[in-house]
Amino acid sequence: xxxxxxxxxxxxxxxxxxxxxxxxxxxxxxxxxxxxxxxxxxxxxxxxxxxxxxxxxxxxxxxxxxxxxxxxxxxxxxxxxxxxxxxxxxxxxxxxxxxxxxxxxxxxxxxxxxxxxxxxxxxxxxxxxxxxxxxxxxxxxxxxxxxxxxxxxxxxxxxxxxxxxxxxxxxxxxxxxxxxxxxxxxxxxxxxxxxxxxxxxxxxxxxxxxxxxxxxxxxxxxxxxxxxxxxxxx
Length: 234
Hints:
By secondary structure, the protein is mostly helical. The chain has twelve helices and no strands.
């Protein structure tokens, strides 16, 4: 006859069913100085971590508020095409680069990466444009897609057509929509063609036709698709 085994968790179940047993076990645990010190030590660490998080959150909130105020003038310079001042300030007000350095980790510094990248693109410094735009991230689908497209533009200017096509694809696929995705797909097709990849260029135009039928670019996409398919077949 098989032996009857005592359930492994019988003692644990007894503690759950009888509060007095649980209290007794807890008292026994805390009577041990080593255990007591361990618990207090862990509790202290948790308290420090929580306090540090709250202090950091308060600090970042204040920093972001200051940075937003500093950023106002930099944006004004950007919109007025005073690009040097937009990047470096005017001696009294911060530029985007100052905000990125002085207010790291804030929303304003993140957005300044976008503006700085866009500014460098206008100035023809394409490597710096890619650097700063790559450091930018946003939950706003249209703005993030635009950032990807600008990286694509910077790569096109440098003759890095494959990289450009990749970023135009990211822009087109990021929360794809009728308004902007066809434009980015057209740019992607142009990048592929510049790289001699006629097949993928035709596929980009095909996607405009198939997925964005209401776009004003559909007729042009059909024409370019037919032309590129002919080139790919040669």
